[in-house]
Amino acid sequence: MTKKIKDLVKATYTAAIQSNSGCCAPSCCTPENEMNFSESYEGIDGYDQQADFGLGCGLPTEYAKIKEGDTVLDLGSGAGNDTFVARSVVGPSGKVIGIDMTKAMIDKANENKHKLDYKNVEFVLGEIENMPISSDSIDVVVSNCVMNLVPDKVQAYKEVHRVLQPNGHFSISDIVLSGDLPEGIKKAATLYANCISGALTKKEYIGAIEKAGFQNTTILTERPIELPDSLLLQYITPDEVKKYRESENGIVSITVYADKK
């Protein structure tokens, strides 16, 4: 099952690059159903529109306490959007590494990097659960709506802990659940690549971080995500949609910060 999920994610995000679209799942590729959780990068230093496919759900670099000269790792770096923003903060004395398991994304990121003539940016093909990154080598880790795509989230956060230097930290934007989703949505494989079907509850998500050995875990931002009825009706009945709307259950974008012990 893990391989099937990863293959689905790779295929979905390869399609996003090839179609030059921010739509990130087969279920949402019509204008009325397109799901875009991203926030505006307008006015943020280092932002390059060509690297932004609208696949994020927050602004993790804004809360990451990145300093000039830092070495930053961007998990699930895609076409390089947050990587390039982080580079504008670390300056010429720092370095930013982006890692992504989808080759098409790495290729696009390198294309953007060469266009911008950035020398202190590197993009690496690899999986977050087993990163080809040296231990204790990173000052700050950032990620934008990617950790939910990783089947083993505890292992993923253990890898984040491993690569961070002592006293290093992360700022990660992601999707969590408030309450419980209807079974039809949770079982919908195509929604996995939208960070929904694979989402944990907020309590489970924080638990995964703490199991990996982090401390001072803090949720810095929370923003509700609304799914259109037209999308929900592809997976659940009208009665289930009504009950879902009347419940306190839902989907939330968070940005979470934690320190390495």
What's the helix and strand layout?
Elements: H1 2-18, E1 71-75, H2 81-90, E2 95-100, H3 103-116, E3 121-125, E4 138-144, H4 153-163, E5 164-178, H5 183-186, H6 202-211, E6 214-225, H7 229-232, H8 238-246, E7 250-260
Helix pairs in contact: 1-3, 4-6
Can you tell me about this structure?
There is one protein chain. A seven-stranded mixed sheet has the order 3-2-1-4-5-7-6, with helices on both faces. Helix 3 links the parallel strand 2 (95-100) and strand 3 (121-125). Helix 4 (153-163) crosses helix 6 (202-211). It is α/β, with parallel strands linked by helices and 261 residues long. The protein is 30% helix and 23% strand. It is built from eight helices and seven strands, in the order αβαβαββαβααβααβ. The protein has helices spanning 2-18, 81-90, 103-116, 153-163, 183-186, 202-211, 229-232, 238-246; strands at residues 71-75, 95-100, 121-125, 138-144, 164-178, 214-225, 250-260. The model is unreliable at 21-34 (pLDDT under 50). The protein has one domain (2-256): Vaccinia Virus protein VP39 (Rossmann fold). It is globular.
